[in-house]
Amino acid sequence: MSGLKRALVSGATAGVVAGLCIGGIPVLAQRGGGQGRGGGAQTAAPAQQGTKPPVKIAGDFDKVKILEPGGATPRARDGHPDLSGRYYPNHAGRMLQGAYRIPEAIMRQFDPEKTPQENPVFRPDAIEKYQHPTPYGTCPPGGTPTSITTQATEHGPLEIVQVPGRVWLLTEFPQTIRMVPTDGRPHPNDPDTSFNGDSVGRWEGDTLVIDTVAIDTRMRNISVGRTGDSNAWLHSEKEHVIERFSRPSKNYLMYQLTVEDPEVLMKPFVSAPHVWTLAQDPNDVWTEYVCSANEEPEVYKNLDQQTKEEYEKSGRDAATQSGRQGGRGR
Predict the structure, then answer these.
(1) Within a domain: residue 145?
(2) Residue 175 CB contacts under 8 Å (≥ 6 apart), including other chains
(3) Residue 103 belongs to what domain range?
(4) Which of 117, 154, 161, 278 is paired with 171 by a 20 to 30 Å CA distance?
(5) Cα dist from 43 to 31, 66, 72, 103, 105, whole Å
(6) Could you report the per-residue pLDDT of 236-277, keeping only the tens digit for each?
(7) Domain contains 302
(8) How many domains does the chain have?
(9) What is the pLDDT of residues 284-310, one digit of tens each?
(10) Coil, strand or helix: which one is 204?
């Protein structure tokens, strides 16, 4: 990623460096067995005579499996589902890596065959103004809903802290803190604009609905389920974001996003329900993952014009090609 300096990285990230040197994808271990950072899979069976012994994969990626539901949904004292926990954007309950491709059934957040998702439909007169690649070397902050949706490619965690009357949404990268009141208050008549926007929450049955307005127009939306930053788009002052969180079982959290913006979109963009899973390692801790501007923007300024034009063209071409192919689940 251009423009990023990572102060601390997770053990899974460090492990992938060694894992990249091993060809092929290991066969998943059967369900069950001891719990661990890989989600609690059994150790592979001993090799048969005449065959090579199983290969140890750095980061325990050979042990990753789909989590079981894990039991009933935890409940808070007020009877609502307790959403508190640390979750990852996959079916494994741990950090995964795009560089080490384990089976899509574990990696992706939704199955497009079962829960299809349309791509955003932009107004023809808005494409030139609002849909273009993030400028090279920039380091944008987190915001709503990007701090959550960008995890489809960042693979980082979302931590939810729920207490009576409010919920905190925390993301590791981009490091973001969102405090959402759930006591029934409305939006202010004239809310202050911010990257996170003004959010209020309410319960609809067992679903927490978070309604957000007044999002800074410098904040880009990352297309949920589409790959690459070239699919990000800017928005107008009229953008309205609705997020729905539900917890069908102990190990699973569902997230669904609706984006309304009459100046940019032909119709509201509604995502498929996306899967997040509860961290399985009790020692899974927060890490500092900082994005800060570095020297690359200055390097870009000094590039010759032809190189700059080729870079910008490649970004536009990627966005166009992705739009033709449609959304892809992670």
Answers:
(1) yes
(2) 142, 288, 289, 290
(3) 85-278
(4) 117
(5) 10, 15, 27, 18, 20
(6) 999 999 999 999 999 999 999 999 999 999 999 999 999 999
(7) no
(8) 1
(9) 988 888 777 655 666 767 778 887 777
(10) strand
